[in-house]
Design goal:
Blueprint lengths: L45 H14 L20 H8 L14 H18 L3 E3 L5 H18 L7 E5 L5 H8 L3 E5 L9 H7 L4 E6 L12 H10 L3 E6 L11 H4 L3 E4 L19 E3 L11 E4 L5 E4 L16 H37 L15 E4 L10 H10 L6 E2 L8 E4 L7 H20 L2 H5 L11 H6 L6
Parallel strand pairs: 2-3, 2-4, 4-5, 5-6
Antiparallel strand pairs: 1-7, 6-7, 8-9, 10-12, 11-12
Helix pairs in contact: 2-9, 3-9, 4-5, 9-11
Amino acid sequence: MKLIFEKDKYGRTAFSLPKLDVPETKIELEEELLRKEDPGLPQVHELEIVRHYNELERKNHSVDSGFYPLGSCTMKYNPMLNEEMAGMFNNIHPYLDEEHIQGALELMYNLQKHLGEITGMDAITLQPAAGAHGELTGMLIVRKYIEDNGYTNKTKVILPDSAHGTNPASAKMAGFDVLEVKSGPDGRVDLEEFKKVMDDSVAAIMLTNPNTLGLFEKDILEIAKLAHEHHALLYYDGANLNAIMGKVRPGDMGFDIVHLNLHKTFSTPHGMGGPGSGPVGVKEKLKNYLPKPIVDINEDGKYFFNYDIPKSCGRLRTFYGNFGVMVRAYTYILMMGKEGLKFASEMAVLNANYLRKKLEKDFKIAFDDVCKHEFVIDGTFLKEYGVKTLDFAKRLLDYGIHPPTIYFPLIVHEAMMIEPTETESKEELDHFVEVMYKILEEAKTDPEILKEAPYNTPVRRLNETVANKQLKLRG
């Protein structure tokens, strides 16, 4: 494939503007603001531009083009109806007067209500731009809450050793010290270990349920009770809500704060770093600490941005959140309905357990228990064939399947984390199983095939050590 810059031909243009029919106005700019040379953009025809980007699209892997079992990231199918609905709002700007965007505000208001009902929370902000941003929002709410209540001794946040890596980072950014609690032999929080670190210096506990191993935390009510006895808040990382949506609510488990990933649970795939949306919900006692503004409705039935949040943790981003993702999520919720959301969770759990049982014969399942939406393979057994999980994952690309998450969670060595989601058919799951066993046979008989993979991708295997140590972010 030729780069667009290689197609450059002097004098070619993709469009032309009509001749200027108004007086020309010159604006004098300061010398340091002026370019010293042309920007070097390629000169090409419109057709060449269109073909260039379509060719790039064909070389990219997406959930629309193939199986994408990325554990803990829920790469589920985004219905085309969602895109159509999002497109209806393309021409509005967030800084229009409220009277001109009543439809958009009504959508946001209703979405807040729906997400509150789904999670068991009393108030919702749609402002955070993604999951980690939601985590930071939650931790800033914790910070404001403990300051407001005079809990000067509360300086710590507890999280399990299986937590998403952004959890400790978010807690640290909000000014807390991080305490790690070990998982027990069953892959869940070790309750006895938890009791050892739980005291009055703890401000919050960050958990996701089911956890990152795909296992439901059966002691969650006891954990919540212990947290609240010490006046600590319980925070729910919503990355794994796709397993319990419509079945059980974080608020009913005892959680005080929850962030959601609209770009996971509510259907907008988030590959390539975006787009994302990470709404945060809170219980009644925390609603005055939410970021401002939130969308509200007045006595006349008009929707407006409500800035009257007296103890707000502050504004988290420009405008009011990633609106396009909100539209897709709202469409998805209305299209699915209460029973549909529940059924989606049931199918996600069924698909994950179907794969787990199909693969357990020759693949080592890290915690061979009934899972929820995902499960983890312990790839250390591959060493006897001279290959690693990375080699296995690279070979999957040659079969048109995006690899599962690898080397996470960190408590499982050579981990391979598989989440099929509810949107894949039995035929697709069976094909995945067939490919997994085919690659395992290759590892046994000719491991060099795996070590040199992938063969069929636009870019072969990169030197990841060099890529990490010598970042090159510009061409």
